[in-house]
Write a structure and sequence with these properties.
Elements (H helix, E strand, L loop, with lengths): L8 H27 L14 H26 L4 H29 L18 H4 L12
Helix pairs in contact: 2-3
Amino acid sequence: MAASFSTSPRGFGALLALLAAGAALSGCAGMSETVAPAFADPAKYELYDCKQLEAERKSLAKRTDDLRGLMEKAETGTGGAVVSELAYRNDYVAVRGSAQMAEDAWRRNKCRETPPEATPPATQLSPAATAKPASKSGKTAR
């Protein structure tokens, strides 16, 4: 006679352990956004000037986007959610934490974005560039 899974003491303990593990792991999904600063050094950006912070913020934003893309790509495959979590989640959380610390330093230093450099329009060429080249026979072009 087979014992029921939930009525045997061993089965009940296993079921209780599975439920506890499920409850513990379900909290991890929402925890990643609040844990991000815990993975970053709060003093890392204290001595950065605005120019350094601007470059760091851009770099961290690019890395965050790259990791997010890799996680989304991994999730499309079989077992992708597990692969995504195991392979990329820790890096993603650490980069997000660093980005948050850099952003805090940016605000604390009252930094502003550097305006993009203005390039001269193509219509303002020098007179030498607009002159027609002479032909090989020595006659001027008309």
